[in-house]
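[agent] plan:
  1. take the single chain provided in the ticket
  2. run structure prediction with default settings
  3. attach structure tokens to the ticket
  4. add a short note for the reviewer (M.T.)
[agent] executing step 1
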Amino acid sequence: MATGTNRILDDFARLMTDAAGAAQGVRKEVETAFHAQAERFLNSMDIVKREEFEAVREMAARARDENEALKARIEALEAKLSAQ
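[agent] step 2 finished; step 3 output follows
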């Protein structure tokens, strides 16, 4: 009888292992579907990606620095012209 019980327990353990593997596969499919749906939703909202935002922010900082330099140059030229 012990052999029969061990065999039943082995079969039950194998069944649980297979069920856990199937559950993990279903979880991965659900995650993939969720990520795809979330990406479609975000794309439909025209949300800017972080990389694009950082690039534009850096461009704006450089433009601001360049404008300040040009403003100082113009003020110096205007001062020079008014002194003449």
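[agent] step 4 note for reviewer: The mean pLDDT is 89.
[agent] ticket updated
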